[in-house]
Amino acid sequence: MPDFAISATGLTKSFGGVPAVRGIDLAISTGTIYGVLGPNGAGKTTTLRMLLGIIDPDRGERRVLGHADPLTVASLVGYLPEERGLYPGMSAREAIAFMGALRGLPLAEARRRATALLADHDLPADRPIRALSKGMAQLVQLLGTIVHEPRLIVLDEPFSGLDAINQQRLEELIRAQAAAGVTILFSTHVIAHAERLCERIAIISSGEVRFEGEIAAARARLPSRVRLAAKVVDGSWRASLPADAVHREGAWQFQLPDGGIEPLLATLIETQAGIETLVIEPPSLHEAFVSIVGDSDTPDGRAAK
Amino acid sequence: MNRLFRSSWVIARRDYVATVWSKTFLLFLLGPLLPLVLGGGYGAVMAGQTRAADHPIQIIMSRSDTAALMEARAVLVRRLGENALPRLSVRSEADAQPALTGSLDKPGLAAPADLLARLSGRVGLIVDQARAKRAVGSALPLPVVIATRSDIALGKADDASVDLARGAQLVLFFLTMLLAGMMISNLVEEKSSKVIELLAAAVPVDAIFLGKLLGMLGVSLTGIAVWMSVGICAAAVLPTDMALSAPAVGWPIFLALGVAYFATVYLLTGAIYLGVGAQAGSVREVQTLSMPLTMGQLVIFGIASASVGEPNRPFGLAATIIPWTSPFAMIARAAQFAQLWPHLLALLWQIVALAVMIRIGARMFRRNVLKSGRSTTAQLGYGFLRKGGRGEVE
After folding, report:
1. Hey, are the CB atoms on A98 and B7 less than 8 Å from each other?
2. Which of A21, B10, B218, B388 is the most buried (most CB within 10 A)?
3. Looking at beta carbons, which residues of chain B come within 8 Å of A109?
4. A90 and B18: CB-CB below 8 Å?
5. Can you give the pLDDT of all 394 residues of chain B as single tens digits?
């Protein structure tokens, strides 16, 4: 088994002269949950489509499960596209079995597994897709993505359109697959999902990787924030607050000073300010994301979607 | 290669089941029966008219005039054939029609209006012959036809085999025109329901194209099998005097070749329909594209039809070599000539051409629809047309 389920070097793609992806490098370790984050139009879907072999890059190299041509290992890969697609006239069982057969499962075995998966998730097997709710249809498609027991699952905006309960179910399913040793790669522009699920992330903006690494490292790029509330509101201690401090929601908020919190804490005690709240909060991934992406969501980037 | 066929089979099976197990397939099966029913009705009416025309003309004249007319007809029949002249009989019933009355010098033909025009000329010929015989004492000299027979070196090409060749081409053409047109919109479902993304991520685009073609070929063959079964049953029940001359290769091989050539011409034509239809962005575009493609089919049929009977002349050879005309030209050849090896060669060539067509269609699809790779010249042209001649390409 290769160390990296996916590796890509310098992937580049333009559409009609408009660059969508500009030299992306990725290395996704086997058995991890990896998130590709980015604003709308950042080039996430184009990157995933290149990695899956749906489209070829203009330049650059990719290896999926150790193979340069992703389609040669299609039977080991599961893919949930952003724009969900199922034949509306097919029954849920046939839809899942069809997706399994496409990935190399014998049809009888695919049907058997489809029946079992649908029963596990309390879904009607014989009802046509067109008669299912959107959430149920999406779940059917997800089951079709895993019916052949892939070693790599690629999910493009998997939480889009799901209600809170189904989002929770999907998160559990992703964790269960990862626990079984499956590599999960998913894209999202909803940071909270990545923060809960991923071990590593890549933040893409305007077709370029702006950050790649562990979530903690992304958050560490920003200083922690301090929230401070005191009984003596107008005491002399206020002169010791950093210049960026603002009073919001009943507390002073500011970035943790380079010298740490101790000098300010000493002043607060000395002046008997009466500390009510003192919280040092590490930055959220959302804040790190906004900071990293900045205003790079250019019209060029939007065209990539 | 194995994976290509396995993937194609999965897609073909899905398309076949989805089509054949739908309610609309029943309408599809009934479609061709409508013209057959209308044709049958029309045939029955025409047969009635023919029977009326075949009714013997009652001669209501003197005995000598009647004998003269009978003799004149017999002389003419020897040169023109029995079917060329109306039958004559001595009056057997009152008010019979058609009837020839009066005398040889002043005859009158009584018949329904629709028969009068058809009979008067030929009855006049008999009367003229009888009057001439009476006037000069011998029959009028008839024009002499000099018949020359030329043997064609490669085999027989008589009228009957030419008719069979043309008939087989016509059947092949109609079936292809009726059935291959379905391919043009065959990827619309996948594109509109976004299934195409799933397919393209799982199997090569070549397999999608081949699977779609094979699936619809299966649907077409199912339809043809049903129609043939109905036709055979109808022929067994209804009286018919239709007689076909045997093809040069014999009926079993001819029918097998018919199926093989239908498959190749269907797949070759379907590959174009599928490839072009796959580029269309909407149903409106699909509809707009169908007419020029149908006209192309007519041109192909015209070329193939003109080559009947002369397979070794340049035109015939061209029709044999051009992949889309080749099945038509070769089924005509099977009707006329007994050699089998040209058919093996032609089928191989058609399969190679089909593989190339699928490849081209798949590449265009990848580049134009999936936006993978650079545009080819053909795609630039298509893009130019889609953009209304503004010269932009997506």
Report:
1. no
2. A21
3. none
4. yes
5. 688 899 999 999 999 999 999 888 888 888 877 777 777 777 766 666 555 556 788 888 888 888 888 888 888 888 787 778 888 888 666 566 788 888 888 888 888 777 787 788 888 888 888 888 888 776 566 655 555 554 444 444 466 788 888 899 999 998 998 888 888 887 877 877 788 889 999 999 999 999 999 999 999 999 999 988 988 888 787 766 666 678 889 999 999 999 999 999 999 999 998 888 888 877 788 888 888 888 888 898 888 888 887 777 888 888 889 999 999 999 999 988 888 999 999 999 999 999 999 999 888 888 877 776 544 444 445 554 444 433 332 2
CA distance A143 to chain B (A): 13
Break chain B into its structural domains and give their ranges.
2-34+154-386, 54-136
- Would you call the peptide bond into B98 cis, given omega within 30 degrees of 0 as the criterion? yes
B contact residues 190-229, partner A, Cβ 8 Å cutoff: 190, 193-204
A207, part of any domain: yes
Same domain, A79 and A135: yes
* Six-digit token string for A44: 């996430």
Which segments of B86-156 does DSSP mark as H helices, in order? 113-136
Interacting residues of B140 by C-beta distance below 8 A, sequence separation 6+: B128, B129, B132, B133
Q: Taking CB atoms and an 8 Å limit, are A102 and B203 in contact across chains?
A: yes
Residues 6+ apart with CB under 8 A from B350: B264, B265, B268, B323, B326, B327
- Measured between CA atoms, how close is B359 to chain A, in angstroms? 16
| Domain housing A206 | 4-219+293-302
- A147 vs B: CB within 8 A: no
Q: Spell out which residues of chain B touch residue A101, defining contact as CB-CB under 8 Å.
A: 10
Q: How far is A87 from chain B (nearest CA, A)?
A: 7
Indicate yes or no: CB of B198 within 8 angstroms of CB of A55. no
Q: Which two tokens stand for residue B393?
A: 């390409």
Cβ neighbors of B353 (< 8 A, separation 6 or more) are B268, B323, B326
Residues A155 and A171 reside in one and the same domain: yes
- Whole-angstrom distance, CA of residue A227 vs CA of residue B340: 92
Q: Residue A67 is encoded by which pair of tokens?
A: 């193979």
A119 and A169 co-located in one domain: yes
The ipTM assigned to this model is 0.82
Q: Do the beta carbons of residue B68 and residue B133 sit within 8 Å?
A: yes
Q: Which of B258, B107, B115 is nearest to B176 (CA)?
A: B258
CB-side neighbour CA atoms (13 Å) of B87:
11
Token pair of A195 as six digits: 């923060």
CATH number where A55 lies: 3.40.50.300
Written as one letter, the residue type at A293 is V
Write out the two tokens for A229: 């509330």
Which residues face A8 on adjacent strands? A26, A62
Domains: count for chain A: 2
The 8 Å CB, 24+ separation contacts for A65-74 are A65/A2, A65/A5, A65/A6, A65/A151, A65/A152, A66/A2, A71/B203, A71/B204, A74/A103, A74/A104, A74/B201, A74/B202, A74/B203
For residue B189, list chain A residues with Cβ-Cβ distance below 8 A. Answer: 87
Which among A16, A85, A104 has CB closest to B193?
A: A85
Q: How far is Cα A167 from Cα A207, in angstroms, rounded to an integer? A: 27
Write the residue in A83, A88, A98 that is nearest to B197 by C-beta: A83
What is the CB neighbour count within 10 angstroms for residue B51? 9
